[in-house]
Amino acid sequence: MDTISHMRREVYVVDGLRTPFLKARGKPGSLSASDLAVNAGRELLARQPFTPADLGEVVLGCMMPSPDEANIGRIVALRLGCGKAIPAWTVQRNCASGMQAIDSAIKDIATGRHDLVLAGGTEAMSRAPLLFNNKMVNWLSGFWGAKTLTAKLQQMIHFRPGFLAPVVALLRGLTDPVVNLSMGQTAENVAYRFNITREQMDAFAFESHQRAAQAQDNKYFADVTPAFSYTGEYAVVDDGIRRDTSMDKLSTLKPIFDKKFGAVTAGNSSQVTDGAALLLLASKEAVKKYQLPVLARIVDTEWAGLDPAEMGLGPVYASTSLLRRYNLRIDDIDFWEINEAFAAQVLGCVAAWEDEKYCREFLGLDGAFGKLDMSRLNVDGGAIALGHPVGASGARIVLRLIDILKRQNAQRGVATICIGGGQGGAMLIENVSEVGA
Amino acid sequence: MQTYKHWRLETDKDQVLWLYFDKQNISVNTMDREVMEELSDITDTLVNNTEYKGIIIASAKKNGFIAGADISQFTQFTDVDEAVNLLKRGQRIYDKIEHLKIPTVAMIDGFCLGGGLELALACRYRVVEDGAKTRLGLPEVKLGIHPGWGGSVRLPRLIGALQGLNMVLSGHTISGKAAAKLGLADVAVPKRHLVKAAKYYVLEKTAPHQATWLQNLTNAKPARTILASILRKKLRAKINPQHYPAPFHVLDNWERVGVQGDAAMDKEARSCGKLFFSDTCQNLVRVFFLQERLKGQAKETRFNPEHVHVIGAGTMGGDIAAWCALQGLNVTLQDRDAKFIAPAIKRAYQLFKEKLKEPYLVQKAMDRLTPDVQGYGVPKADIIIEAIFEDLAAKQALFKSLETQAKPQAILATNTSSIPLDDINSVLQTPERLVGIHYFNPVAKMQLVEVVKGDRTDPLVVEKATSFVRKIDRLPLPVKSSPGFLVNRILMPYLLEAVMMMDEGIPAVTIDKAMVDFGMPMGPVALADAVGLDVCLSVAKYLGKYFNSKIPPRLIQLVEKGKLGRKSGEGFYQYKKGKQIKPHDVVAEKSLEEISDRLVLRMLDEAFACLREGVVADSDLLDAGMIFGTGFAPFRGGPIHYARSRGINDLFQQYVKQRQQRGEKVELLRNWEAIIEAV
Q: What is the ipTM metric for this complex?
């Protein structure tokens, strides 16, 4: 470990901004994934003492860019005026794409390849397309291939109305093909393992809304910049927070994934949302050269794999090994951001760490990892209230955690996220205000 | 091979003769006597030539194919016969080209206008580049004439009367792609294939483009009679034949002789020759050169702004920001809250869509326009334009803070239309940095921008501001910082006079009709409604302080009632969805000339006062300002030029008489003749 830390250069976060997170409202939102990233990025770059062309690279996480946004990272870099010469790429690790982008930027800086990298994630979930099903595609290719009028007529006879049934790309994207479970069903699995009740989930969801509303009122979300659309619409704040929700209201919602006997509802799951979050990462050299303010140091990242059928427990695996690498205990972490894909899954993570048997069997520990102080978890609310634009959330929670550490004068925090397909990602962040010697 | 001054001949390995037009000592190709005579000589050597596979005519210039005829020639003919003969000579040269035995191709990259397009039309094929810079057209009517080298004959013949005449009558230019679609060009290709395509037509000798039978039919006698009367009616709805006779001549000629044979060419030459001597042509040529003069300013100034910061996202600020982004600059647009910026973004999108059409270009322009609530653009901008509400203290406070935040070499500009610069800059450490850059509404339509120099403004800053205005393709008019500057100062008394005339019982429609007949784009009453009566009132009040002018009570009453003009649905007129509800025609007691004379005289009096006070440096600049800033009848050459043409002293005596009849005194200082002699 010593050798690793000697080889690598320190990585600092010097700035970050995100768009308001905008709840999908049944029709495509007015901003595409690249529009969202441009909205966040142009103001972020506008306030830097360097020019966009001084960046070394742009890395963007996005799970489902639209068909005309291939390598969306490059598109965004060019649209932000970084110029032709600045390379850019796109990363995809499902729900952790935004965190993966940051990790890729960390490597660029740590290895000395670049001094300044713009990294983050974006997602326009409301714009996820409807696709033709396979039968329709086969029929169409037969129709286009038919050379003569007779052949075309023959092909037309074979058409069936069922061919028109669309495939909802969003639902497919949120389904694990290997275990044939939707993400919500994996959360049901976690709830089953740790006996998490519907009431516990709803209470957690209620708290998320309360905390987010309070943070909004306290003007804590200074990392949110307005987003403008071509049609004259604009958004200033996250619009998914339900200030009027209550335990009563939450209890009336029906389970949506396991219809009859399940406990995971739309109310205790993250929302389907559009948004982008971007961070500027810098080496010590860049900080000195441009006299940049230092917000935090990213100590390290960890990625871990687990059973895809319980993907919601990903944070447990990633965070535990990250903390153990630095000989840290659960109490050594001042603040936690565990992305709220589902209340069941966050509560499952907390339960797992408290569960001696689970910790022995699955984490190889001698006993329970410890009890996580809920007052130090997601203190400004989470994705249940704000939404979970899958490509952006990983970057959002890192940015939020940095803000909380600064505000609370705390030393260190962990931002961690579960990943569809059975993975977890975690980042250890240290609150510093200047670069190390 | 013989050498020429303006043409270069090269033969390539396929025995294709390349005829490069490379006009000596100038960056843009235009046709004049010498160029045409050389072209004639070259053509003569090719009449019986079979050595070459064909000829490709191309431009050797970096910019454009041919801009048209050299306009400075238009005012140099001694009589109509000379003009007609020169036109006929040109027609014969183009005829020779048309009748060459070997194929001819015009390879067009960039603008191809007037006489240039007429040359291209005489070629067998036209191959055009498909980019944004390629524009083809016959804009002669904009100079009060019509094509004279066969264009008004060949174009309708090639693509049918409807499309062909439309281009000649409107003077509009079209893109390469549109030209190919109309059949005017044989093909539009990207630059990378241009040479290949040009050689293809020479070597393959495919059948030249011809009008379809339906298009041919439109040029036949019976169709001409019907179409001409329809087109004439449509034309009359837009322009007055007394002011702009040229398009009507085109229609008459076409109706009478059609598009075949010598008769059509002969008619074109004679008709065009006469038009050169019309007042309209002479004045429009004058306006063309006034425009060239404005364009030629600050050419040597080294100022290359990349980033513009605009403060205030209202109608003016928002539209200024959008215009700058459209012109390729990076723009940050600041206002107190996102909600003030959002409508400006919407308007920008509409503008870009209209101007750029291609979605990827629209997106590029949108990405250059950054909403900036926090004002991050201030320390980075090369030029900062303030367009907040008209309040001295607010502007002072703003510039005071900008002065410390902006780059030391950045230009600080105000779009104020009324507050003297030396009042604003009095609070600054460096008052010499502040300059006025005053746009007119609507920004995207009004070409003129007043560049305002305060007493303390550094001349170099004025130069840079002027250069900036050119870079965003507007026409800079240097003016002194006196109240109302030039355009509003002259316009306001004219508008107020119109309101007073209404008080005297003359109907608004009559007043407006009189001024439209005079040649204004809209009447003064409709203009006041369009500008907004509240805006008019505040400018009138403001100017009233300085010039001791009366404000008609009617204007005050309407504003008090919230009747603010078009924007509120009612002003002097009533509006429905922004459109004027046509009032009933009324029988006027006074003649329209009497009305327009009175209004124009009032305007002239203020114009001469501006000259006397040195608001602009000379009368040509004043004329240019009023034409490009208010649309003052261009075919009249500008207010001062108009006064000259009618006799300055006569008009002044009329004005004095008019005032005396109304019991007003005219200061001796204001003697127009004396002013013009002193300038």
A: 0.91
